[in-house]
Amino acid sequence: MMEFIPGVGAGSLLRSELLADGRSTRIGAIHQIDYDQAVVLTHDRWKFDAGGISQFSFLLATAQDVNDPRVDDDEVLLLRVEGTAPLSLERDLHAVREESLRTALSNNQDPSPSTVLDAELDPFTKNRVSFTGVRCKILGTFYEDDVDGQKVLEFGADVDNFYATSTYRVLKPIGDGLATIASYLKPTGRPVERVRIGAVRYSATRRRAKASKQADAAVEVNIRDFIGNKTALLGMTRMGKSNTAKIIIARTFVVSERQRAAGGHPIGQLIFDPQGEYANPNTQDGTEIAAIGANHVRIFKFGADGTQPHVKPLNINFFSENQIDAVQGLISDTLSSDESGYVKDFAGMSYADVPGDRSATTHAQRARLVLYGALMRAGFAVPTNFRARINISGAFRQKIVTGLGRNPFVQAGSSANLVAIAAADVENVVDKIVELRDAGDADATNFAKDVRWKSVEPIFTTRSGNRSVRGWRNLNPLRPFHSPATQNDPAIEIYEELLRGRIVIVDLHVGAEAVTKALSESITRRLLSKQTEVFTSGQEPPHIQVMLEEAHNLFSSDRYKDDLDVWVKLAKEASKLNLGMTYATQEVSGVAHQVKANTANWVVAHLNNTTEVRELAKFYDFGAFSDAIIASEDRGYVRLKTLSSPYIVPVQIDRYDIALVNEARAAAGDTPLTLNGTAL
């Protein structure tokens, strides 16, 4: 006899992973179905036995007879509950219910609600009115496929066929079956490293889920989805964004250490920390990223005194020759408010020595002399025993000595023309050179003829042509950046630490906003420059992850139009430079559409207004969760969509804690942290 739905002999993987006892429980049947939507017929008793059916629950619809493996269509539809739906006879049943209430009211002398509304229906009618319809979206189809001779579970985001409604059985996935669905990763050809990030959570109310032991179905993600891609952490303040970020950072560190152990390249992670919550412990998340260990985490902060080897100063030394590029970048940003032409000239020059080019190095040294004079006028603390080196002819040197009435020059090398000038004499020497040049002295004119000198001189003299400019006065806000004790440019040190696979936290919670903003941009600019240098040389840039808070201030639509903006360059060029970027914000609409359109991973917590939710609804099917996103204010309760996941999963994110810290430490070969002598 021919079966109406032929059994084709597969289905064992579908059964063992999704439909087996303990992985799903029967809750009803299909009442109506098309290619996008389905209505499930269920009963109050079945819902109760299954631990309830929350909105956004996953359901499975199968043409298989779960009790007879010979009947098998090899496909299982994945449904998501979106609401209720009327049944065909529901109006008639409402009429029966209404009539019974009218009868109870007419037959009882007591018209109180408890008497009328609690009137018992006869068992037959009560059973009939207990059937309800559940409206579901069809997310797609699970099926089996052969890959390299092995059966695998595949998922297609549509339906390629459907049968008569009476054919389907509907089940609610539970336990490992639910975990399989929530953690399903579509094959992408990319490496896969599964890690737990939380547990399935359908609703803010969790009583039934806990009572039925359905509250801890694990949600696993491929942590490699986050490496080299953009990740959005969206939600209001204190909704768990930083906790999620810490989990991603710690899990990425584990991957990095495994790669290092296997002879591969580690992954550096750069965290801009405006609140100090990554560098320091806090009660909200339990512990800090720095707990992973001083050997693996570097903290750069203002005021670091060197007593802790892993905590380094964030300040730069404005008088250090090897930090001149960072100094130039900060000064250029600060001078940008002055619209004079010299500002662009200053920003467009290089004041570093040029190996192999004696002339360029000579003019760079002379320009630095003027800059040092401007810094001294602005009140910058001068390093002990500081001397400025310049190349100057003996004849011109003698004119300056005569003009000053003393000799400020000290021999500084084998060449007679290479001299050094002590800090106390720098301003006087520059003043005298300008004075002689303005008086028409040929040696002074020749000495100051290079464009580098001319671009710095207005900062020292506060004159640009015939105009007065603010010049060195604009440098006053930069004094908090400066430390005469700093030996190396922090931006270079940071990049070198990233190359070693370390987690680098730039602690910005101490310092004026203008200062921390400019410094963050300087560090990022150097990162982009170094990665671009490797990329353009034909090599593969190292993988580095960047964590950014308050992204709406960095990637606004107006700002995104400026191709020279460092944050815009980071957003546009991150992928090709192997820079992964995790950005957090509570203002979805404040982030340029182009950034969101290129975001691979989405973690969406509570948002408090329809403007942000409407913007979010433009991506994937987050619109289906709009009301719940606004209503649910539980910390760590998110809707998660990753690069490898074909659908959105509602998740309660795990807490970043000592156990995860110790997992990261173990990957690096370190001993676990202990509490009262007990390993945690």
Textual characterization of the structure:
- The chain is of the alpha+beta class.
- It is built from 22 helices and 26 strands.
- The strands form 5 sheets. A 12-stranded mixed sheet has the order 9-8-24-23-22-10-21-20-11-19-12-13. It has a 6-stranded antiparallel beta barrel with strand order 1-2-5-4-3-7.
- A hairpin with a 3-residue loop joins strand 1 and strand 2 (37-43).
- Helix 8 (241-261) packs parallel to helix 22 and helix 17 packs parallel to helix 18.
- The longest helix is centred in the C-terminal third of the chain and has 24 residues, at 513-536.
- Mean pLDDT is 86; it is low at 1-10.
Given as residue ranges, the uncertain stretches (5+ residues, pLDDT < 50) are: 1-10
Number of helices: 22
Strand order of the largest sheet: 9-8-24-23-22-10-21-20-11-19-12-13
Structural class: alpha+beta
Mind telling me the C-alpha Rg? 34 Å
Amino- and carboxy-terminal Cα gap: 63 Å
